[in-house]
Design goal:
This protein is of the alpha+beta class. It is built from 23 helices and eight strands.
């Protein structure tokens, strides 16, 4: 089990570290995306935000079949509006989107960026390869991770006792204590997040059940699992589902403010999160208000209110489709993995647990090198395999931090109007990561660690200043306005700066402490050969 734990953790450990690191950041996907669009930072919601958004949609898309208006909340600053025109393509391809100022209703034009979605997608699909390949690679790596966690628990018989033991400045013993402590501290999180990650990829990794029942028609399976109606089953009053009433006279949409007040009285703690208008401008229009930030494991678990779009009279919403036990389990697993149910406090707890898991993975890879230092001292040289692990450790851990900080810097330094701007930001991420690998190959082991950790610390620490200098809201102003998504990003990168700076300082201090000890013992010193002397001088 010890052998299995060591090699299952090492062989794909560098990829697993990247998956854990980017997945942890993805708990704040929306906040990262908002920070990377400073054009939205001046959007401050007010009591008329919903009315202004509806008025703008009446001008932008009067002939649309559906409007969806996502109002600002704890995780976004601006209004995100989308609409579908009659006959639009199915799925997301048929949607048109726009960002609106929450205070004025004006259309905003944020810079092109993938934002936090790049980190989220990289977390389970990697990049620059077919999605299926990326998901297979991450799925295999996740299975290795699951094996490493289970074998680690079996290997360390006193793992819970050792959690309360930490012996600093003891070399290999200190690294093992740190690895054990971070493994046990969030052990339930590590097991659940890894196993649920495998279940999310189950349809690809174990497709035989779907192939047998649906004869390989996966689209039909997913349509049924989501509860989509069969063709022609979605007819509603006024015409086909999502379409406009045929030959209907235009009708004025009712005022949204009284409906918002009704919903606010119903949900005093949360308020309204989104507005969905079906067939606007027709006698058959309906307005659906959805609860803000519903804390449900399964998507769509929040409460909804339905109103007549012309008179404003309450209407009985259609009865929700019954959820089977299998769908409930599947939805719950996905909700746990994505943190869909989490309020801000729980989301921070998930983020810290992910950060501990990242440290666990990184400390395990470093421990592999530290455990083999006595062997290298006996040999008097560094074997090529050991040197390869050293270089990959530096690039995977320190280099990924530098590359992530560079991604955020590129977001502000790359010109706003260049073509394929979002791809340019991502290319900067991988270019810097590649340079970190080259740097680790060319520099001595300890010096490479120190330099990359300090670069990451400085780059993260300067991001709040860069934000304020390039059109974003400064940290103090964001806190005063209650824009905690933007303020939270700045606070997190400052915490990452402190973490990397502390690691660099400790590494430098340990090197300075070890140098006198090596000199005192004669290790690493060249001992001069004795010079032949005359008998008189010898006497």
């Amino acid at each position: 089990m010890s052998w299995l734990h060591t090699w299952s953790g090492l062989l794909l450990g560098w990829l697993l570290y990247a998956v854990f690191f980017t997945g942890t950041l993805s708990y704040f996907l929306d906040e990262i995306t908002d920070w990377m669009r400073p054009e939205l930072h001046q959007s401050v919601p007010g009591p008329q935000t919903a009315a202004l958004a509806v008025a703008t949609m009446q001008k932008l898309a009067p002939d649309a079949s559906t409007w969806t208006i996502n109002l600002p909340g704890e995780r976004q600053t601006a209004v995100e509006a989308s609409w579908r025109k009659p006959g639009a393509a199915a799925g997301r391809a048929g949607n048109q989107r726009v960002q609106l100022d929450a205070g004025t209703g004006e259309v905003l034009h944020p810079r092109e960026t993938r934002g936090g979605s790049f980190l989220y997608r990289f977390h389970f699909e990697l990049y620059a390869m077919p999605r299926v390949w990326g998901r297979w690679i991450v799925g295999i790596a996740t299975m290795f991770m699951f094996v490493a966690i289970i074998s680690g628990v079996i290997t360390h018989k006193k793992i819970f006792t050792e959690f309360f033991t930490f012996r600093p400045r003891k070399g290999q013993r200190s690294w093992l204590d740190a690895h054990n402590a971070t493994a046990v501290l969030a052990l339930p999180f590590h097991i659940i997040i890894t196993f649920s990650g495998l279940l999310l990829l189950m349809f690809m990794l174990m497709p035989w059940g779907i192939d047998a029942v649906y004869n390989g028609d996966t689209q039909k399976y997913f349509a049924e699992s989501r509860g989509c109606p069969a063709a022609g089953a979605g007819e509603r009053e006024g015409g086909p589902r999502g379409g406009r009433a045929q030959a209907a006279e235009p009708a004025q949409l009712t005022a949204i403010t009284p409906l918002m007040e009704t919903a606010q009285a119903r949900w005093p703690d949360r308020g309204v999160g989104s507005i969905v208008v079906q067939r606007p401008g027709t006698p058959g229009a309906t307005i659906e208000l959805r609860e803000q930030g519903a804390r449900a494991l399964v998507r769509g678990g929040g409460e909804r209110l339905l109103f007549d779009g012309v008179t404003g009279a309450p209407r009985t919403p259609p009865e929700a489709r019954a959820t089977s036990a299998a769908q409930a389990v599947s939805g719950a697993v996905m909700g746990i993995h994505l943190g869909r149910f989490a309020d801000p406090a729980v989301r921070w707890l998930l983020f810290l647990s992910g950060l501990i898991g990242t440290v666990m993975a990184g400390s395990g890879m470093v421990l592999w090198v530290v455990k083999r230092l006595p062997e290298r001292r006996k040999l008097g040289r560094t074997p090529r395999g050991h040197r390869l692990v050293e270089v990959l450790n530096i690039a995977a851990i320190g280099g990924l931090s530098v590359a992530t900080a560079a991604y955020f810097w590129a977001n502000r330094l790359v010109p706003v109007d260049i073509a394929q701007r979002a791809d340019t930001e991502i290319r900067c991420f991988f270019a810097v990561w590649g340079l970190c690998l080259l740097h680790a190959m060319l520099r001595p082991h300890r010096r490479a660690w120190l330099e990359q950790l300090w670069i990451a610390a400085i780059a993260f620490a300067a991001l709040p200043l860069l934000n304020a200098a390039t059109g974003g809201v400064a940290l103090p102003a964001a806190m005063l306005r209650g824009q905690w998504g933007i303020a939270g990003f700045d606070l997190v990168v400052l915490a990452l700066a402190v973490l990397h700076g502390f690691a660099a300082w400790k590494l430098g201090a340990s090197a300075a402490l070890a140098a006198p000890q090596r000199n005192a013992s004669g290790a690493g010193m060249r001992i001069p050969r004795p010079v032949a002397q005359s008998p008189e001088k010898q006497a």
